[in-house]
Write a structure and sequence with these properties.
Belongs to the acylphosphatase family. This protein has about 160 residues and is an alpha+beta fold. The chain contains four helices and five strands.
Length: about 160
């Protein structure tokens, strides 16, 4: 953890930069304009510098990108509380999105959140589901990086 999140950790005690590109590791004020902060964080991280902007969580500063992915689960997934368990697991992981039954006997929906959490939920959808379900397969489509979440919680769509 960096003691002063607005200062490059590779600065020596006397303030002299120790990183590969000395001109880029000067004191960076935390109040700097947030435009392009993602690019700045990525660029500085290549030289061992971590700069955390106000309001940016530690996990996001360390690169846990937000993604969105659509899914469909095949098998015995209707009439077995699959949607309810999916909603509970999504909420437990801090994800947002939705889940619904289809006329074809499958369950479909969308997941949004940090990549690591979405990956965990994808594995859950492929292998666990609700206790009485039997999953044949799960498909995931339209995965994309997003800048902000489109939903505020995880909903069951009727």
């Amino acid at each position: 953890m960096v003691s002063d999140p607005g200062v490059c950790p590779s600065l020596a005690k006397d303030g002299a930069p120790r990183c590969a590109l000395k001109s880029f590791c000067r004191r960076i004020p935390v109040s700097a304009p947030l435009a392009g902060v993602g690019l700045l964080i990525t660029f500085l991280s290549t030289f061992g510098c971590l700069v955390r902007a106000p309001g940016l969580s530690v996990s996001m500063a360390e690169g846990d990108t937000l993604i969105s992915v659509d899914y469909e689960v095949f098998g015995k997934v209707q009439g077995v509380f699959f949607r309810k368990y999916t909603q509970a697991e999504g909420k437990k992981l801090g994800l947002v999105g939705w889940v619904q039954n289809t006329d074809q006997g499958t369950v479909q929906g969308q997941l949004q959140g940090p990549t690591s959490k979405v990956r965990h939920m994808q594995e859950w959808l492929e292998t666990r589901g609700s206790p009485k379900s039997h999953i044949d397969k799960a498909s995931f489509n339209n995965e994309k990086v997003i800048l902000k979440l489109d939903y505020s919680d995880f909903q069951i769509v009727k």
